[in-house]
Amino acid sequence: MFLSTTLIENLIREDLPYSDLTTETMGISEHPAVMEFSARYACTLAGMDEASTILRHLGANVEPLEKNGTTLAAGTLVLRAKGSAGVLHAGWKVAQNMMEHAVGIATRTHEMVIKGRSINPDLIIACTRKCVPGAKTISLNAIQAGGGTVHRLGLSESFLLFDNHTAFFNSEDHLLATLKKAVIAQPERKLVVECDDLDYAMKVAACGIDVIQFDKVPPSSLQNWVMQLKKRFAHLTIAAAGGINIESIQAYAKTGIDIAVTSFIYTGKPLDIAVTIKPL
Amino acid sequence: MFLSTTLIENLIREDLPYSDLTTETMGISEHPAVMEFSARYACTLAGMDEASTILRHLGANVEPLEKNGTTLAAGTLVLRAKGSAGVLHAGWKVAQNMMEHAVGIATRTHEMVIKGRSINPDLIIACTRKCVPGAKTISLNAIQAGGGTVHRLGLSESFLLFDNHTAFFNSEDHLLATLKKAVIAQPERKLVVECDDLDYAMKVAACGIDVIQFDKVPPSSLQNWVMQLKKRFAHLTIAAAGGINIESIQAYAKTGIDIAVTSFIYTGKPLDIAVTIKPL
Amino acid sequence: MFLSTTLIENLIREDLPYSDLTTETMGISEHPAVMEFSARYACTLAGMDEASTILRHLGANVEPLEKNGTTLAAGTLVLRAKGSAGVLHAGWKVAQNMMEHAVGIATRTHEMVIKGRSINPDLIIACTRKCVPGAKTISLNAIQAGGGTVHRLGLSESFLLFDNHTAFFNSEDHLLATLKKAVIAQPERKLVVECDDLDYAMKVAACGIDVIQFDKVPPSSLQNWVMQLKKRFAHLTIAAAGGINIESIQAYAKTGIDIAVTSFIYTGKPLDIAVTIKPL
Amino acid sequence: MFLSTTLIENLIREDLPYSDLTTETMGISEHPAVMEFSARYACTLAGMDEASTILRHLGANVEPLEKNGTTLAAGTLVLRAKGSAGVLHAGWKVAQNMMEHAVGIATRTHEMVIKGRSINPDLIIACTRKCVPGAKTISLNAIQAGGGTVHRLGLSESFLLFDNHTAFFNSEDHLLATLKKAVIAQPERKLVVECDDLDYAMKVAACGIDVIQFDKVPPSSLQNWVMQLKKRFAHLTIAAAGGINIESIQAYAKTGIDIAVTSFIYTGKPLDIAVTIKPL
Amino acid sequence: MFLSTTLIENLIREDLPYSDLTTETMGISEHPAVMEFSARYACTLAGMDEASTILRHLGANVEPLEKNGTTLAAGTLVLRAKGSAGVLHAGWKVAQNMMEHAVGIATRTHEMVIKGRSINPDLIIACTRKCVPGAKTISLNAIQAGGGTVHRLGLSESFLLFDNHTAFFNSEDHLLATLKKAVIAQPERKLVVECDDLDYAMKVAACGIDVIQFDKVPPSSLQNWVMQLKKRFAHLTIAAAGGINIESIQAYAKTGIDIAVTSFIYTGKPLDIAVTIKPL
Amino acid sequence: MFLSTTLIENLIREDLPYSDLTTETMGISEHPAVMEFSARYACTLAGMDEASTILRHLGANVEPLEKNGTTLAAGTLVLRAKGSAGVLHAGWKVAQNMMEHAVGIATRTHEMVIKGRSINPDLIIACTRKCVPGAKTISLNAIQAGGGTVHRLGLSESFLLFDNHTAFFNSEDHLLATLKKAVIAQPERKLVVECDDLDYAMKVAACGIDVIQFDKVPPSSLQNWVMQLKKRFAHLTIAAAGGINIESIQAYAKTGIDIAVTSFIYTGKPLDIAVTIKPL
Questions:
Q1: Is B53 part of the contact surface with chain F (CB cutoff 8 Å)?
Q2: Alpha helix locations (H) across chain D?
Q3: What residue stretches are annotated with the Quinolinate phosphoribosyl transferase C-terminal domain (chains A, B, C, D, E, F) (predicted)?
Q4: pLDDT tens figures, D66-94
Q5: What pLDDT, in 10s, does the model give residues F111-130?
Q6: Out of B15, B20, B186, whose CB is closest to A25?
Q7: Which F residues in the span 97-116 are in contact with E, Cβ-Cβ below 8 Å?
Q8: What is the ipTM of this complex?
């Protein structure tokens, strides 16, 4: 994952537009020091590259001690950085805060993967583009660390048809004919259509669409629909979205869907990373 | 609040680096259309300026219908935008997703303000700098919409002494002498020291420090400490941080603190904004 | 297509970092003026949005007279802009030069589409990511104007396996097993493998790969291979790359491929746009 | 030549906004590897600094093996980079594509310099500002590598009077009087006027203009005009533009001009650089 | 102080958008060389971090020989850099010019601090936000090097009430009531009000305002007002602004004010730094 | 002069990273208001475009009342802006501070032009590139408003040979031979050499150099040298630099130089612009 200087400096500048008033007023900036990051709770690690890059960009000597994607016991030391107290204090909260958000996402993703795959070992947990605005790169990295997949990077590289698109077609015939042309026009991409009933899904699949994404369909109905669709369209991929979370993931996994699409993993508490800074 | 073109374009580019594959493949980009945003749940509104600026930057004609900070009933229409389907689809999810996060923060902030002030009408809900990295401007705006206050903008404009600073002083005498000098050196800023016991707080307050911020002190102890500190230091401001959330806010409000410092409001679900796009 | 202020200003700044020395030294900057762009040769129009945005950003009043993608006769007037001579001279060469490159790409793309589809009406002309570095957005827009398709936006959204990847696998068995896992891991994207012989293509297709991209295979061999692959893998998409240009496109179209992948369209002369500026 | 981080990251981001889907899905990112760039055809080398900077910025260990401006035999190895397969694949196409365009420009420039100077050893090949928009720095570097000169950096540092300027003068007298003042007003810059007939050139030269640039004048007429102008204005520099390319350069060199101004070198095929990546 | 790559590259690009025409035309770019910076006059050093970062960013090997804030004798060598002549010439003027401005600010600040504290050892010299636009980071660093304090970072982190604000209140009662609420609403910041008479200052101080800033009050009146205010409001901080400069600082220091607010230090000549570049 | 959004937003962000604490805390942001800028002293106006662009970018309705370059009497109203108090306060100090610096530069430039041309009507006042780092565009605009000329935009577009270049030549012969080649290699630019004695100037001029720039030569010597050089080299342009300021300009003008090169105009006080904001 490419972490640009622009991204790293935007994160730093949010916390440190100029100098660190406290550290400089207290006169401790030049003191040699060591900083240690450790996981306060059991978690799936993420954000290590961002944290390392932030701290190195500020001038610290960084020693990463664990890898993204590792499941850690509470208390595990994950990163050690050395440098002046000024440098370490400058990067402390930026790196810590970023990592806490990343670890939160990675841990929730990993939990969903584990629970979902205990039912269906090939189930894909695909994370939506509804990450916090401004935090896309960090979020994508954390999803990957947690074993999830990116649903869409954005509007430019993927085709997903919503009701807000179909509203522009006067007749279903016109819509389906346009979809058939789209299948031919985009032979290198999978086309996805959001559906909420079986009938529409059947018609759309018949156009050659690659993926049906059911929205807010309860697992009870979904299981039947998946079976019927897969019987008729062997190559069809089926996704479910809307209400997929750590509570519901196993019920959805049982329906036979291929992909569980979720924004749940962006939600919830960052996971605490304890940080200590000490003189050397 | 200044919303720079740079910020607005970064948000747009996260979702739309080039063109909108779905809308263009379906051939509906040029169709005149109208888009409406409405609150799916009761909430405190936020993110209106960002949403309007995003949509206008893409070329839409935007009509804001409600103001940031307003408490809305579920279902309230908040914004209407007109333009080509291409323009509206380009901005839809960027504006919606941003607003859902903003409304989530504003609503949680407002709830804490209401609950806290039901006990102490002058209580300040001060939000930490632990917002999601990359989302600072949006978060600050949402806090303001919810009636909260910004605790620190960052390291450069405020003084907050942590254990990670005091670790660099060999003796308490040296630390306290340095604090006294800091009080003189920074006469235009309030100096804040994080404490977790009364004894240290008393010593620090005697140095002329303006604000004591107690960290993770249970309300039971806090009430007594606040009383003792205020008796001796009439001008002292007292803040509490660590574990302040919608459940605990009233217990903390009863302790007599002036400021409740919280990261809670960044946590939790975005609040759904329903968006429809229709042909005109 | 989103044209960011950042992009537009980068283009302007390349030509106009500060002021226009000639126009200002000659003292004509304030004179009201009109500028007209017309196609010197028959061509497929592109770059209209970029040119309009550049000129409007500098303060001109712009009237676009033709649409991207239109096939024009030599001499057709495409855009008129009004403003001070200073404003029009500031944008003249930036807009003209950009449009000449865009029209060159669009025209070559369109010619390939016309020639290819005279043989196979569903043939897709897919343009590689080998555009001139720094000119990606302009190039993608011009391809679209010419009726072409984007092969890959870049590394992050598409899967294309080259020899430079397979070199890391000790055995073909290991490679094929990994490909099978990749098919499961990326259910929302089509997986493409570059091949140069039929045998390898057959094995790869059997892993569930969606697209075979043959590299530098002469049309004579290709026709036979396409037939054999399509017989066995009904859903397989077949692309050809390497040496696809305006001369060879019809020979390749006859082979039965679905997609002709080409960098040819980036090559060759910009197509002249005549620009006159006159006093009003 | 200053290669800013901003420029280098813009090039990288065009191809790699987030991660490399293929390399990561195939699980080979961490494998130690070596990448080699070699010239597929005889050429004049360029783009070495950009390629090295791109690859180093991504974390590779780069060993440049040849210098910009060197004339290479087909097959010459020019650069070797070591790093993880993930790092090398991240930079491969960005560096390769950039270098192919740069080598194309440098080789065409060098060929024109060689051919032109075989007639007139002091002939200057000056390249116009009509490079591909967004590729200015790369293009300027490649021109320099090929032995060419930059005609104008842009509008702010050079004076070149076109018909689109003179259209704002009611009388030739007014125009010439203004030119005389311009000569005094800009004593540190050479003033250039585009002409297409001898009479106008004579008048303009008499104003003290430093350079006459003839546009689209055939070599036959030009030779005579150059002789007449040089006889009368010993210090005058004469340039020719319009239709100067590898075919016409020698005919123009024979006319006695000092400068051949050309956009030809931006046109034409990038020159292939072969790239292999192998495990170490 | 965080010196971002963006800032450093903006400074470099102002002087070196592409290559160094002189050094390259003369053919000396590759020659190994050493550059030395020394203070031409006695001064307080500043700008060392910026100069080092600029030169390192361009590829030089930098050896800083003195520290920011040091008072230097004329002729002191402060920095030595090694690299190719091309690299050193690229950074020469950018670094020198920046440092001359920084040293000018630091030296004027230091002189004011010394003169002011000879009267009142606790006097704070607070520098306004009226630095040259675009030079904020450099200016803040230079102020710190000179022993000054930053008055306000900007509008977002500090409260300073001017007449241009009070003009919006119909009655003094309304204004004072609003100020009282502001004191409660912003418990973590000091509130400052600009005054020009004692009566208004008394009323404002009674609202709980932390700092009175007198504007353009002559020292004769000020001394009396300070005494009266301090008698009544023991915790009140008093600042003076308007006409505070190296001539007037001692007269103001005698009035008993706590803070002298000045823009004077931004004014005046940069202090010459002599720079030599020699072959190695 | 092109004023990019990037530049304008950098200026705004220096003062207003987020919101305006004072104006919002006082609750006056929404009040309709008018702001007026007027010159406190007689001056030459500059910075009008920047001020207008800043205020418009923030949402104000701006009415410029005077033009850049006009000589104004003290008290002249130059700009009126209308908008909410929030918008006007947001832009007040940014626009005012920028304009005060610009007017300072323009006024000093204009005074030098007037004084110098009272002696030599064709004298060019050329301003060096030693403007305050970060303030280049503003400074260039102000110089132009004052009637000055830009000496060099930077290193990339102009040739100026210093001792720090000649130090790399072992013999004068080698240096002069290289200069002769440079004259041929750069036929579209004037070549400038810094000299401090007549002998070297004569040799350099004989190489075909266009401009001799004498550094720190007193007017007494200079007059004689100029005469001797001009006698021998009719086309030679002669500049003087070092110690050129408002006091010395007339003495230098009398020497017969063509160009007075100065950094003086960047030095000295900004000229006060009075700003009032009132309710509408």
A1: no
A2: 5-15, 21-25, 48-57, 85-119, 136-146, 163-166, 172-185, 198-206, 219-232, 249-253
A3: 105-275
A4: 999 999 999 999 999 999 999 999 999 99
A5: 999 999 999 999 999 999 99
A6: B186
A7: 97-98, 100-101
A8: 0.96
